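This is your field. Have a critical look at the following sequence-structure pair:

***
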Amino acid sequence: MLHRAPMPDIPRFSHSGLFRCRWLFAGILPWLLVVSCGSMTHSAGSPQNLIEQILRQHPDWSDHVIRRATDYEIQILYTQIDRDQNNFPEFTSHAYRVDPDAYFYPASTVKMPVAFLALEKIRQLGRSHAGVGPYTPVRIDSAAPGQIAVLHDASTPAGVPSIGHYIQKIFLVSDNDAHNRLYEFLGQKQLNEALWAKGYEHVRLNHRLAVSRTPEENACTNPITFYDPETGDVLHEQPLVCNDDSYLPPAPILRGKGYVSDGQLVEEPMNFTGKNYIAVGDLQAMLKAVLFPDAVPEQQRFDLGPQDLDLIYRAMSQLPRESGIAKYEDEHYWDGYVKFTLFGDNKERIEPGIRVFNKVGVAYGYMTENAYTIDYDEGVEYLLTAVICVNENGIFDDGKYAYDEIGFPFLANLGRAIHAYEVDRPRRHRPDLSRFEPYR
């Protein structure tokens, strides 16, 4: 779950006169990055790509960040969506400093594929176990060191946990415990290997979030029981599962110049070798596969039916005040609480004409958003995935990160700049967005 101080007001800007450019697909990787007017990994002296052209139109907030793009570890993947005469989507992607081998800590963005796979697994279980579905009550037990049992969830109408409700909390407020329960439902081995089998190769998901566990403890996941809420009868039991394989990169990943451990500064780089990772391209490709399953290769799709997709779309786009969960309807969970691009720098209400289907992540100074944005009134839709690291002093876990000063303003203004460009960008056909109208 995120905890943030109020953001300063950032002046809005005009969106007239932004540079337009058509790009060509380079089908190198499953996520199809575009490299035409600029290189995939932009370097000083090379031609500016479209994203940089857009950013350069607003030097007041972008120049001081772009000049230090390497220090801030910025990666941006912007995908335009054009519809043909049958409303079928065509994608044109633009990459700024995107590199699948450039490690960043993905934080809570890992919750998105965990939610997708958990719903896929529930659907598959339901085919062989009558009564098992997204909102079937679950009992999570403890059978190994580091495991915590859970029998109740006060945020649900019935007061009991369910996979569907955990998914809702993941997207509404980025709930860490909800993610950990889905991680336990899937198991470390199934989680990773299911994503690799779909072609998402730049992924390593090794641990729970916001709790300290050893690699051995993270490799073992809790027993889980699905039961009939009326009779208490067991519908399905999943035992303790332990993964004997190790998912580590080929070389150590060291970052910064120090870190805080047990209140003491350790003056050596922090080791991220065993931590989670998802490349920017894979993050966006997973989101695209769930939003536009018919437009991606079958291998990359998730096994989700219409009701599953409705659950996902509603959870991803819903604002906390719309959830029906009382604890999320107060001032601590404002509209832009987990909507960083466009809205992350203020607490204003989001107008109903715009919906963001997304997942964000914040930790160790890294900030990430993976989003599909719709402007129903303007007939605009696009995908935007962005990463920035605002650990200015190079010390991890000291709590001194420039989130409010650099991160939130940059991401919000990046979103506004891309959105303004999209509003001006000509289209052959206005998109029919009726499929997403129920989530407006």
